[in-house]
From TrEMBL:
Residues 129-152, 192-226 are annotated as: Disordered. One of its GO terms (biological process) is proteolysis. Its EC number is 2.7.7.-, 3.1.26.4. Residues 253-268 form the CCHC-type domain. Signal peptide: none annotated. Residues 513-692 form the Reverse transcriptase domain. Keywords: Endonuclease, Hydrolase, Metal-binding, Nuclease, Nucleotidyltransferase, Protease, RNA-directed DNA polymerase, Transferase, Zinc, Zinc-finger. The lineage of its organism: Eukaryota, Viridiplantae, Streptophyta, Embryophyta, Tracheophyta. InterPro entries: Aspartic_peptidase_AS (IPR001969), DNA/RNA_pol_sf (IPR043502), Peptidase_aspartic_dom_sf (IPR021109), Retrotrans_gag_dom (IPR005162), Rev_trsase/Diguanyl_cyclase (IPR043128), RNA-dir_DNA_polymerase (IPR053134), RT_dom (IPR000477), Znf_CCHC (IPR001878). This is Nucleotidyltransferase, Ribonuclease H. CDD domains: retropepsin_like, RT_LTR. One of its GO terms (molecular function) is aspartic-type endopeptidase activity. It holds the Pfam family RVT_1.
Length: 765
C-alpha cells in the first residue's frame, strides 16, 4: 500500500521528518500523534520494539527526557503514559515557560560599548561563532553562563541537556551541590534558599510546611457512577519542603518528607479516593448528561455506563465472574468512597477485557467494585486513551480511528411512555388499513415447574438428576472404533483459542476429570478442540474428529425414517417428551478404542472413557442401544430417535401407565434425563421438526421459513435445489406435483430459460 501510493521521494521525506521529529514545547499530544502516524508509514525505522521506544524518547522535550530514560519503560505505551504525566507535572511547575523566556537572539557587547550581532550563525544548532576567533573545544560551563556571555566554541547545542558538546550527554551534575543524578531545580540543598526551582514554593523554615490540596480530576461536584461505586479523583498536592541545611542529607519524598521513598511512590498520593453518588439505570437513561447502553464485554452483553467523571473503569462483582479472566493484584490499592460515606478498597484489576462497539473491539481494564444497576462503568482512562467524544444531549459517543473514520455509538435514549388506545379505536384503525402487530409477551422470570408438581414424575426423582453421577455401567452395547486397513495414527496441533475460551476449556476439562469421563493420555492419536456457542450463550466443547472419521469403517446400522415414526401416532391425544442428559456420555467405549479418542489441548493430552460427540458412528451406536432398551414398547406407545423419547397415548389413564412404564425402564437401565428439556402431559408437542396433536401431524412453522424466504431461482440448478427442499413437505401439500410442474419443466435440458418476469410468476404461483 505504501509503495503504491507514495513515491520514493515522498518516503525519503517522511523518513527524514521522522528522524528529526521532536516535541515542540509542551505539545506532547501532537508529538505522540505524529509519532504514531509516521510509525505506520515507515515501520522499519521503529522495529523491533526497543527501537520504537528509543526513537520516541529521543524526540521528547529536554525537561522530561532524562526522567523517562532513567525509568527504562518496557513498552511504548508505558513510555507514552510516563511522558504525558511528566509533561503535565512540568507544565504545572512552569518549567516550559522558563525555557521559552531564555530563548532569544545572542548579542556580544564590544569594548566600545556598541552591540553587534555575530556574523556567523549556524541555524538549528544554537552555535554562535565570532569572526576571526578560534572556537574553544571545551563544553559550555555554568560559570560562563553566569557572566552573561554567549557560547564562543564550535560544539553544537544539545537538545537534551541544553549544553554545548559532541556525542552523548555526560552525567547530569547539579550546579548547586556538585553531585550527579539531579539538577539545580530539584536540588534538596537548595530548598531553604527561597529559589523558584524544584517542586512548588519552599518555605524558609525547616520541616514540612502545610500542603494545600488541589483536585486534578474535576471539580468533584458530580460523578456519574453506578449504584454504590465511584470515580477516582486523585488529590495532588503543591509540595512545600523545608530546608535540610545543605548538609548533603539523602534526598527523600518531596510530599511527606520521609527519606524512605520518593514522591512518585508516596503512599499519601497513591491512596486515591473519590466521591460517589447513587444513580439508577432508569435515571441514567433519562439524564441528558449521561450515556448508557448494552454492549458485549468479553462476548457477554453488559449494561454499560460511560462516565466522564470516573478516572478509571469498573465492573460489578456479579458480572466479574462472567468475564472469563483472572484478576491481578494492584501494587497500590485505591480507596473508593461510597454514597453512605463508607470507604471500600479496590486492590484488584482485570486486564485485557474487550468491549465491542459497532464492528470494532477495544481493550479495557476494569476494577471490580460493588455496583448497582450497571455491570460496567467506563471511565476517563478509556475515554481519553481512545480520544472519545461524548455528545450528551444526543446520547452519542464518537470514537476516531487511525484510518480517519469515526465510530458512532448510540446510547439508550429516554423511554417513551406507553400509549394505550381503546378497542374501538383500534378497530377503526384496522378498518382504515393501518398495520397492526400482535405481540405475545412471555415472562421468562416466571417460576418453572418443579418435578414435585408433576404427577408420576415425582415418583422417579432419581431419573432426573442435576448432573450425571459418574461413569455409566456396562451395557448391552459398547462403542468401538474400527479403522480401515493400513490406517496410521493422526495427531494435529491444538487450535488457537480466545482467552475466554481458554478459561472455559480449563473449567470443562476439570468437570470431565471429576466425573471420570476423561483421563490423561499417552496415545499417538490427537484431535484439536474447538467451542460452539449454544442458544443460551454457553459454550459446548467439541472435538474435531474429522481426520479420525475419514479412517473409520462406517457403521451401517439404520436410523429410523421420520415418516415411519409418525405413522405410529394415529389416534393419539396425550404426549410426553423425554430428552436424555448428555446421552452420548451415558455409553462406555471399549478399552481398545479409548486411545483413538485422544484429544490435545494447551492443558494436556486426554482421552475419553465415554462416547464423545463428533464421531461418525456415534448416532448409529446410540440408536442401537435405545432400540434394545425400549424394544418391549416400540411401536406400541413409544417412539425413539437417538436420545429423544416420545410417549403417546389415546387417553389420560393410558398415558399415566405408559409414563410409569418408561420411567421404570430408565431407572432400571440407569439412563438419566434432563428435566428442563422434558415436557409432560401435552395435548400438542413439537417433535423432529413437526407439530403433533389429536388432529394429526403438521409442519412446524419455524421450519419452513427457509422456503418462504427463498430467492427466485435463476438457473436450473437453483430450481432443483428449491424443489428438493420443498419436496420434503409434499405429504402436507395437496396436488404438490401439479403445483410444482411449471418449475419442474424448467429443469429439463431441452427447455430454454424464460424471461425474468415469467420466471418470477411461475415461482410465486
Amino acid at each position: 500500500m505504501r509503495n503504491k501510493y507514495c513515491s520514493r521521494a515522498e518516503i525519503q521525506r517522511l523518513e527524514t521528518e521522522f528522524w528529526h521529529l521532536k516535541m515542540e514545547g509542551s505539545k506532547i499530544a501532537e508529538y505522540v500523534q505524529r509519532f504514531h502516524d509516521l510509525s505506520h508509514v515507515v515501520p522499519y525505522m521503529v522495529t523491533p520494539e526497543f527501537k520504537r521506544i528509543e526513537r520516541f524518547i529521543w524526540g521528547l522535550a529536554p525537561q522530561i527526557i532524562s526522567m523517562v530514560t532513567s525509568s527504562k519503560p518496557a513498552t511504548i505505551t508505558e513510555a507514552i503514559d510516563l511522558s504525558v504525566a511528566l509533561t503535565e507535572e512540568a507544565i504545572r511547575l512552569n518549567k516550559f515557560d522558563e525555557v521559552e523566556s531564555k530563548k532569544k537572539e545572542t548579542h556580544v557587547e564590544s569594548s566600545g560599548g556598541n552591540k553587534r550581532k555575530f556574523s556567523s550563525f549556524k541555524q538549528g544548532t544554537g552555535v554562535v561563532v565570532k569572526k576571526g576567533e578560534q572556537s574553544a573545544p571545551a563544553q559550555d560551563t555554568a560559570g560562563s553562563r553566569r557572566k552573561g556571555k554567549g557560547y564562543m566554541g564550535a560544539h553544537p547545542k544539545c537538545n537534551s541537556c541544553q549544553r554545548h558538546h559532541s556525542g552523548r550527554c555526560g552525567p547530569k551534575v547539579c550546579e548547586s551541590c556538585g553531585k550527579t543524578g539531579h539538577s539545580k531545580d530539584s536540588c534538596w540543598a537548595n530548598a531553604g534558599r527561597g529559589g523558584q526551582g524544584g517542586f512548588g514554593n519552599r518555605s524558609n523554615r525547616g520541616g514540612i510546611g502545610n500542603r494545600p490540596q488541589g483536585n486534578n480530576g474535576g471539580d468533584g461536584n458530580r460523578v456519574n457512577n453506578a449504584n454504590q461505586a465511584g470515580a477516582i479523583n486523585r488529590n495532588q498536592r503543591n509540595n512545600q519542603v523545608g530546608n535540610d541545611g545543605g548538609n548533603g542529607q539523602r534526598p527523600g519524598c518531596f510530599n511527606c518528607g520521609d527519606t524512605g521513598h520518593y514522591k512518585r511512590n508516596c503512599p499519601e498520593l497513591n491512596q486515591a479516593r473519590g466521591r460517589v453518588f447513587n444513580i439508577e439505570a432508569r435515571e441514567a437513561r433519562q439524564d441528558p448528561n449521561v450515556v448508557t447502553g448494552t454492549f458485549p464485554v468479553n462476548q457477554r452483553y453488559a449494561s454499560v455506563l460511560f462516565d466522564t467523571g470516573a478516572d478509571y473503569s469498573f465492573v460489578s462483582l456479579e458480572f466479574k465472574n462472567m468475564l472469563g479472566l483472572a484478576a491481578s493484584k494492584l501494587d497500590i490499592p485505591y480507596s473508593i468512597e461510597l454514597a453512605n460515606g463508607k470507604l471500600v478498597e479496590a486492590n484488584e484489576v482485570i486486564r485485557g477485557c474487550v468491549i465491542e462497539l459497532g464492528e470494532r473491539e477495544f481493550a479495557l481494564d476494569l476494577l471490580p467494585v460493588q455496583l448497582g444497576s450497571f455491570d460496567v462503568v467506563v471511565g476517563m482512562d478509556w475515554l481519553s486513551s481512545n480520544k472519545a467524544e461524548i455528545v450528551c444531549h444526543e446520547k452519542v459517543i464518537r470514537i476516531p480511528t487511525k484510518d480517519g473514520e469515526n465510530i458512532v455509538v448510540h446510547g439508550e435514549k429516554r423511554e417513551t411512555p406507553l400509549r394505550i388506545i381503546s378497542c374501538l379505536k383500534a378497530r377503526k384503525c384496522l378498518q382504515k388499513g393501518c398495520v397492526a402487530f400482535l405481540a405475545h409477551i412471555v415472562d421468562k422470570k416466571a417460576e418453572e415447574p418443579k418435578i414435585e408438581d408433576i404427577p408420576v414424575m415425582r415418583e422417579y426423582p432419581e431419573v432426573f438428576p442435576e448432573d450425571l453421577p459418574g461413569l455409566p455401567p456396562q451395557r448391552q452395547v459398547e462403542f468401538r472404533i474400527d479403522l480401515v486397513p493400513g490406517a496410521a495414527p493422526v495427531a494435529k496441533e491444538p487450535y488457537r483459542l480466545a482467552p475466554s475460551e481458554m478459561q472455559e476449556l480449563s473449567t470443562q476439562l476439570q468437570e470431565l476429570l471429576d466425573k471420570g469421563f476423561i483421563r490423561p493420555s499417552f496415545s499417538p492419536w490427537g484431535a484439536p478442540v474447538l467451542f460452539v456457542k449454544k442458544k443460551d450463550g454457553s459454550f459446548r466443547m467439541c472435538i474435531d474428529y474429522r481426520e479420525l472419521n475419514k479412517l473409520t469403517i462406517k457403521n451401517r446400522y439404520p436410523l429410523p425414517r421420520i415418516d415411519d415414526l409418525f405413522d405410529q401416532l394415529q389416534g393419539s391425544s396425550f404426549y410426553s417428551k423425554i430428552d436424555l442428559r448428555s446421552g452420548y456420555h451415558q455409553l462406555r467405549i471399549q478399552e481398545e478404542s479409548i486411545p483413538k479418542t485422544a484429544f490435545r489441548t494447551r492443558y494436556g493430552h486426554y482421552e475419553f472413557l465415554v462416547m464423545p460427540f463428533g464421531l461418525t458412528n456415534a448416532p448409529a451406536v446410540f440408536m442401537d442401544l435405545m432400540n434394545r432398551v425400549c424394544k418391549p414398547y416400540l411401536d406400541k406407545f413409544v417412539i425413539v430417535f437417538i436420545d429423544d423419547i416420545l410417549i403417546y397415548s389415546k387417553t389420560k389413564a393410558e398415558h399415566e401407565q405408559h409414563l410409569r412404564a418408561i420411567l421404570e425402564l430408565l431407572k432400571k437401565e440407569q439412563l438419566y434425563a434432563k428435566f428442563s428439556k422434558c415436557e409432560f402431559w401435552l395435548r400438542e408437542v413439537q417433535f423432529l421438526g413437526h407439530v403433533v396433536n389429536g388432529d394429526g401431524i403438521h409442519v412446524d412453522p419455524t421450519k419452513i421459513e427457509a422456503i418462504k424466504d427463498w430467492e427466485t431461482p435463476k438457473t436450473p440448478t437453483e430450481i432443483r435445489q428449491f424443489l428438493g427442499l420443498a419436496g420434503y413437505y409434499r405429504r402436507f401439500i395437496e396436488n404438490f406435483s401439479k403445483i410444482a410442474q411449471p418449475l419442474t419443466l424448467l429443469t429439463q435440458k431441452d427447455k430454454k430459460l424464460i424471461g425474468e418476469s415469467n420466471r418470477k410468476k411461475r415461482f410465486r404461483y
